[in-house]
Design brief:
The structure is a single chain. This protein has 228 residues and is α/β, with parallel strands linked by helices. The protein folds into two domains: 82 residues, no CATH class; 130 residues, Zincin-like (2-Layer Sandwich), CATH 3.30.2010. The protein has eight helices and seven strands, in the order ββββαααααβββααα. It has a four-stranded mixed β-sheet with strand order 1-2-4-3, with helices on one face. Helix 4 crosses helix 6. 25% of the residues are buried. The model has no long low-confidence stretch (mean pLDDT 93). The structure holds zinc ion (ZN). Zinc ion binds next to helix 6.
Length: 228
């Protein structure tokens, strides 16, 4: 993993009880922060997705990590939360994320189904709004675990779909439903520390027509019981 030392860009931190520190940007697949103790101090590791972040954001994050390393609860600074939700941050880092996650085809058009057709049907039906899918990216996955049909990365606003659903034998509504579920994760505020499938989420989910029938279809998807 390549790292870049950015210690000289960070303003002096209040470091007690450490004698010294250094700060590195590290190539990571996901946005992630870590620290490790060194002989005399601490090394702070920030994901290189933050390479273009304003210095004030990097400083706030380093201060938060130092506090965390002293046993305080980690609290993500508001400045970082605001920064990573900007369109600029998402647009400039998403290509890097997509390259690194290696499980996406980058294609919306599958051999049978087009994900954008699903998104458009969801919008036409009034289930999904412009604001839900602003600055987001849809792609078929290269593969996905059995019974996992979709995935959503809220940070980079990427929805990927299990390629087993890319078949003429799968009803369009099933793909629409899987995408609807993932779009609901895009609709959620990722900075709120709630459970992803909370009551609010479930009530949105139940608005999908034939919800029960489609859930049952997906539960039987790999056993063939859905063909009955
Ligand atoms: Zn979910």
């Amino acid at each position: 993993m390549r790292t870049t030392d950015i210690t000289d860009r960070i303003r002096p931190l209040s470091m007690y009880p450490y004698d010294d520190y250094n700060v590195v940007l590290k190539q990571t697949a996901h946005l992630h922060y870590a620290y490790r103790r060194t002989k005399t101090g601490i090394e702070i590791e920030l994901s290189d997705y933050l390479g273009e972040a304003p210095l004030s954001v990097l400083n706030d994050e380093c201060e938060a990590i130092v506090a965390w390393s002293r046993g305080k609860k980690f609290v993500q600074p508001q400045s970082l939360t605001d920064y990573i939700r900007t369109d600029d941050f998402i647009v400039s880092n998403r290509p890097k994320y997509l390259r690194r996650c290696r499980t996406v085809t980058m294609m919306q058009q599958g051999s049978s189904k087009n994900l954008i057709d699903s998104v458009e049907r969801l919008m036409d039906s009034g289930l999904v709004f412009d604001t839900d899918i602003t600055n987001s990216f849809f792609t078929w996955a290269t593969h996905m675990a059995k019974y996992k049909f979709g995935q959503c990365n809220q940070t980079f606003r990427v929805v990927s779909v299990n390629p087993d659903l890319d078949s003429d034998s799968v009803p369009d509504a099933v793909v629409d439903y899987v995408i609807y579920h993932e779009i609901l994760h895009l609709r959620q505020d990722p900075t709120k520390n709630h459970r992803p499938h909370n009551a609010q989420f479930r009530s949105w989910e139940h608005m999908f027509p034939d919800y029960d029938r489609i859930e049952e279809y997906l539960r039987g998807f790999y056993t063939g019981s859905h063909r009955r």
